[in-house]
């Protein structure tokens, strides 16, 4: 949607002001018409940072590291969100996990450190964790 709404009425014109409303925080302010472009430019940067911070906090709160299949199934069934778990890299294991839990691999993070472990499903060696989640 639109991040900023500008409201300009007859009274605003008489006062040389404009109403600026942020959609992310629902805050409204009345500012002088002179300088509105710079104000909105800085406001958009602030809104972008606020939305990014909220998204990162939400992702962190809803991402769980799991090392066993039982906990994996519980989290997927109850909490949803993202579950980072070891996977052996085979399509067969991925399909079996999908059949049993409806969770699929959402991504293989590019920025992860090597984190060898054991696949939560097959028990085979794994080089890193992948992100599982259910589609809604």
How are the secondary structure elements laid out?
Elements: E1 4-7, H1 10-15, E2 17-22, E3 28-32, H2 36-61, E4 63-65, H3 69-78, E5 82-86, H4 91-101, E6 103-107, E7 117-118, E8 125-126, E9 129-134
Parallel strand pairs: 4-5
Antiparallel strand pairs: 1-2, 2-3, 5-9, 6-9, 7-8
Structure characteristics:
3-stranded antiparallel sheet, 4 helices, single chain, 39% helix, 4-stranded mixed sheet, 9 strands, 136 residues, alpha+beta
Explain this structure to me?
The chain is built from four helices and nine strands. The chain is α+β, with helices and mostly antiparallel strands and 136 residues long. The mean pLDDT is 94. The chain has helices at residues 10-15, 36-61, 69-78, 91-101, and strands spanning 4-7, 17-22, 28-32, 63-65, 82-86, 103-107, 117-118, 125-126, 129-134.
Largest sheet: 4 strands, mixed
The helix/strand class is alpha+beta
Specify the oligomeric state: single chain
Helix content: 25-40%
Pattern of helices and strands: EHEEHEHEHEEEE
Shape: elongated
On the 0-100 scale, what is the average pLDDT?
94
